[in-house]
Structures are given as C-alpha cells and as structure tokens.
C-alpha cells in the first residue's frame, strides 16, 4: 500500500506531475481521485500562505455588490488557485467567488472560496476558512476545507472517507434534537431568508444553540463536536466541499426542503441523518 503523510494524504510519488497531465476526462474518471486530492492540497499551500500573510495585518476592505466584504487576501488567494487549476487541469471549469465562472458546464469543475468568513478574517478572528471542491457532472467528489489560522486541514474523496490532520472524521451520534448541540449561521441570515421561525424553534427545542457561522460551523458538525449545522444562506462554493465531507464522515447534507440536496439551492442542514431530518421536519411544519 502507498505510504501516507501525517495529514492522511498519500506520500508524494517519485513521478513529477506535468501541467495538463489530467486533461483527458477518460483518464481522470479512471484514475485514483486520491492523487487528484494530493495535487489539490499542494495547490492550497501557497493560497493559504497568501491569506495568512494578511491575517491581522493592515489592508483595505471593499464591499461587493451584495455588500459583503472582500479583501486583497480573498482576491490574491483565488488568483493563485485559478492559475494552479489552469496549469494542472486546463480542461476543467472553475466557479470562484471573486472572479466568476470559467467553463462552468465542463464535466469536471472546481469551486473556490478563497476566504470563507471574510468578516471574521477582517476582525482578526480565526474562524475563517479556505475551500475548494471538485465537481463531476455537478456533484462534489472531492472537497478540502482549510482553517489556516488554526492549522487544520480537512479533506474528503468520494468513497475514501473524510480526514482532518490525519484523523478520520465522523459525525455525531446524537439522535434527538432535545439535548443536541446545534450550530447555526448568523441570525441576520435567518431573518433575511424569512426563516426566523426555524431559528426560534431550534433555540426552544435544542440543548444549546451557538452561532458558528460559515465553513467553521459546517466542519464542526462534520467532525461531530457539534451535532448539526443549520445554514439558511450560502453559495455553491460554500456548500460543495461541505457536502462531500459530511457524506464521507457518515452524515447527510440536505436542503431545508425538497429531495435534491442541491449545493446551489442556498440552504443546508449538515450532520447525522436523524438530526438533519428533525430540522427539516420543523421547517416543513411551518410551511404547511
């Protein structure tokens, strides 16, 4: 069996990767996705270094059209990742938060969120993340969530499990919402999406509800240190890595309603199947 590094990744092989070596879709569909994951982890390293270079430093903050903040760290980290993807996977599409889409209808598409939780990053809080995922025909088959300020790297590959710093990830076994430790997005997200009823019910029925927004909250549910994460507002680049990670950690990704479990629908419940279903039931009851 191939040797593994401390983070659970395969040890580097003695064959150098060349740009475009994964160009042929027939090759990547048959190849070991663990090798693609190792390339992805190597691509993340300079992007993470760029983000940490600006963390708790001096920089300006701009507002995007949706009034969300963006910094030089967001832009430069995404530029690094886009260049790396184009170098090693030139036939793949890219969906990035800061610089839009390139060939988004390709069979293989990467999603990029260079700094998830920019508000935390701007304030010097360590709860931000950097994330990428690889989609095959619209569904994530590989995902990476980095918590750069905390030195944590989590990854998952379809059929191969989910790991963080070399340790397997597994969702909580808590079976009832009563007594559960629930993570939620910021309250304003529930208000803006007219889901305050869900926020209020969770606070009434769960053991404790804490605001752990963005990828940090999702990763804590995937790790099983919180029992479920409830998020009413995010984008494809936020949800793509979370979906494959929670599935490979033995849990479930679902939208507030419907059966598609779409990474584009805008809502997510992440955790073990029993709690995910109980949260969805509360949402459905209010919608009748």
Q: Could you give a short description of this structure?
A:
The protein is α+β, with helices and mostly antiparallel strands. It is 36% helix and 24% strand.
* Cα radius of gyration in angstroms: 18 Å
**General shape:** globular
**CATH fold name of the largest domain:** Fructose-1,6-Bisphosphatase, Chain A, domain 1
Corresponding CATH superfamily of the largest domain: Fructose-1,6-Bisphosphatase, subunit A, domain 1
**Uncertain parts:** 11-16
> From the coordinates shown, what is the CATH architecture of the largest domain?
2-Layer Sandwich
How large a portion of the residues is in β-strands, by DSSP E?
15-25%
What's the level 1 CATH class of the largest domain? Alpha Beta
| Structural category | alpha+beta
Strand order of the largest sheet: 4-3-5-6-7-8-9-10
